Amino acid sequence: MPDQEKYNRSDPMAGAGDEDEEMQSAVESRTLDLGTMEGETLIKAERLGDHPETPAAGEERVAPRSLWQDAWRDLRRNPIFIISGLLIVFLVIVAIWPGLFTSTNPLNCDLTKSQQGPTSGHPFGYDTQGCDVYARTIYGARASITVGVCATAGSALVGTLLGGLAGFFGGWSDSVISRVADIFFGIPILLGGLVFLSVITIRSIWIVVAFIVVLGWPQLARIGRGAVITAKQQDYVTAARALGAGSGRLMLRHILPNAVAPIIVVATIALGTYIALEATLSYLGVGLKPPTVSWGIDISAASDSFSIAPHMLLFPAAALSITVLAFIMLGDAVRDALDPKLR
Questions:
Q1: Angle, helix 133-169 to helix 311-338, in steps of 10 degrees
Q2: Are both 40 and 146 inside the same structural domain?
Q3: How far apart are CA 137 and CA 323, in angstroms?
């Protein structure tokens, strides 16, 4: 045993394994968790002392992705988003350039062909006035999509502005805006349309859009108010305020970009709802009026002759259903991508 102890003292490599383990333990104990600004991706960076280790050969440090980059990656992998996106792109092209899909004027009618079924060159047949149903279905996309997009944009703009002001400043401004929103929110939008539009003699697309914006902004204002209140309580907003950032900079640079996601989700779903609302109002006779070509107008005109000429109702109704479904599917896909609870 003495010889063995003498050998251990004389051997300079004795205990080297224990020292390596202690060194590795020291390195691991000083591993840093570098979080991204939004706290979604954590990168482990091991360093000893003040000199960070360089990545191993052939390895690259991956840059952290933002919320929008993660959402876009998820959307590209979602078949529902792809299908609904392609449908919406097609419908928008039809609404902007209907002449690419038909050369027939939807207002040129021939009473001798009233309620005739599909024929060669006229695949959807004719309506009661002898107008080509296919041409009217193609041109009807313009009015419906224009009302839906413009009403959604206006509601989102007004709702985000008022809801953001209420959530950011609070106090009396929050109380006033919230109570006004409650008043408009308590009016059923369909009943309001029956009352409001029935007393207006001129019912153009922009009148219907203005009506939907007036009664549609409270929902988005509530969403925007809650999102702004949540965002302004975050640490990065507190830090920016401590560094001297003003109210405008805080709102535009720090709060609004992080509060806009739920507004986009609700607005996308509401777009399909507003298209259906326009068709419903036109069907009830208080929405758009001829000579404007609208799916709701055609469905209303065809409802009395469904048993005799079902093609008059089926084709515009199918176009309306596909359009509304496409926007609702898009909204669901965007919600799944932007909602962190569903990840």
A1: 30
A2: no
A3: 12
Taking 3-state DSSP, the helix, strand and coil percentages for the chain, each rounded to the nearest 5, stand at: 70, 5, 25
Which residues, other chains included, contact 32 with Cβ-Cβ below 8 Å and sequence gap of 6+? Answer: 44, 45, 46, 47
Check whether residue 124 and residue 59 sit in a common domain. Answer: no
- Residue 8, in any domain of the structure: no
Determine the distance from the C-alpha atom of residue 113 to the mean position of all C-alpha atoms in its chain, rounded to a whole number.
44
Give CA–CA dist 90/95, Å, rounded.
Answer: 9
Token digits of residue 32:
């840093």
Each residue of 98-137: pLDDT tens digit? Answer: 999 998 889 988 888 888 888 888 899 999 889 999 999 9
Q: Which two tokens stand for residue 242?
A: 């401590």
Torsional sign, CA 18, 24, 28, 29: positive
In this structure, are residues 229 and 255 in contact, taking their beta carbons and an 8 Å threshold?
Answer: no
Cα–Cα distance between 296 and 273 in angstroms, integer?
14
- Domain membership of residue 260 as a residue range: 69-342
Residue 342 has pLDDT above 60, yes or no: no
